[in-house]
Design goal:
Chain lengths: 116, 281
């Protein structure tokens, strides 16, 4: 539901980076997005298409890497993959697990053309 | 063989070169920055304000109509003699909720978000300019009724309380994992209606929260007949005490809204700058 405002944050960050590196054009923006971040990739992509118009990122492609849900059991130490609503360790059935991947929402990288 | 006239291109490598045409001037900047950095910085700033005045701030989240305001009314009735309380109300429209709280004799500030589906740290900071924190013990933030978006936003508060009313169904934690994973306390509300519902099991609801690797306590409460109010009040009091102990050791606490994975993977790394493709010599 808040993909549009999130996309504004994204563009702010990217434009700042573009300025720092004196970019002429931006080719692509790569995000890491986990299923538990609460963000819908399709809505984010739509928001991006609207907001990028007439900015330095107008020609950029948005690449969304979907990261897997991976938990680390604090009891038996086992790392395993998990689903959105079942984060219990499959080996020892403990629910004392930590998410090591799956809820991230990060700007991973920006590919840009510099003035050189 | 040179790179100038193309004589190094042979039928054997032509396809590779066409696919991997070096792009002059293209560089990739590795960033790894959380997209909510802006909000989180503001939230930390808000928390400094709250901690300076030693106020415990609790964010109440739930679907619309699960009884957040009624719970607050009953809670204030029981606590207003012993504690100094204030409430920030978030709604899309109307000041109804703030008026209900003010009728209990405590200050309430309404944020009408218009169309925004959640409160964020900036909206809370705007309110702080108009509301004195001095002397407060406990500040409730009643978030916009919504089981999706509010879960992702740190407001600078200390604890997340998520309400689940018995009429909503015991599978809500499984359906809205992001929200219920962020709960520091789950409150099952409107338990006075349980005799009329044959399909809500408190054990199932607890199990579904447990499955999200969340060991937060679950309490049951009815603001109507006061069932469970004592346990809820003692949870609040123990949280206030714990918070005071932390503050006296110059520490504070954050709600579970913090994303573990994002924090592990996105420690503010300096911007790296390296070319993706080097120019052929």
């Amino acid at each position: 539901m808040h993909e549009l405002s999130l996309c504004e944050n994204l563009l702010d960050q990217v434009i700042k980076i573009a300025q720092q590196h004196q970019a002429k054009n931006i080719e692509s923006i790569t995000l890491n997005l986990g299923p538990l971040a609460g963000i819908e990739p399709l809505l984010l992509d739509n928001a991006f298409k609207i907001l990028k118009i007439d900015t330095v990122v107008a020609n950029a492609q948005l690449i969304i890497n979907s990261t897997p849900i991976i938990i680390q059991c604090q009891q038996c130490g086992e790392q395993s993959s998990a689903t959105n609503n079942y984060l219990v360790c499959p080996s020892c059935q403990s629910n004392d697990t930590q998410l090591i991947s799956g809820d991230e929402l990060t700007l991973a990288s920006v590919a840009l053309y510099t003035a050189t | 063989m040179c790179n100038t006239c193309g004589c190094n291109v042979t039928p054997g490598n032509r396809s590779l070169i066409q696919n991997e045409k070096p792009k002059e001037g293209l560089t990739t900047i590795s960033v790894l920055q959380n997209l909510l950095t802006h909000n989180n910085t503001q939230a930390d700033h808000n928390r400094v304000h709250f901690d300076a005045e030693k106020v415990l701030v609790i964010n109440l989240m739930s679907s619309p109509g699960s009884g957040k305001t009624s719970l607050l009314e009953s809670t204030i009735k029981q606590l207003k003699e012993s504690l100094s309380i204030a409430v920030i109300e978030g709604d899309l429209e109307t000041e109804n909720d703030a008026q209900r709280i003010q009728a209990q004799g405590v200050p309430a500030y309404q944020i009408t978000t218009g169309t925004a589906c959640h409160l964020d740290a900036h909206l809370i900071h705007n309110v702080l300019h108009h509301m004195p924190l001095k002397g407060l013990d406990l500040l409730f933030i009643e978030n916009v009724g919504n089981l999706v978006c509010p879960a992702s936003f740190d407001l600078g508060h200390h604890r997340n309380v998520v309400l689940l009313s018995v009429t909503e169904g015991d599978d809500k934690p499984s359906k809205y994992p992001v929200m219920f994973k962020a709960a520091d306390l789950v409150l099952i509300t409107k338990t006075d209606l349980l005799p009329y519902l044959d399909d809500f099991s408190i054990d199932n609801a607890k199990q579904n929260v447990h499955n999200l690797a969340n060991n937060a306590p679950t309490l049951t409460v009815s603001a109507k007949n006061n069932q469970g109010m004592d346990e809820w009040i003692s949870w609040l009091k123990s949280e206030i005490n714990q918070h005071q102990v932390l503050l006296s050791n110059h520490q504070t606490q954050k709600p579970k809204v913090q994303q573990d994975g994002a924090l592990l993977h996105a420690k503010a790394t300096p911007h790296k700058f390296y070319p993706v493709k080097t120019h052929q010599q």
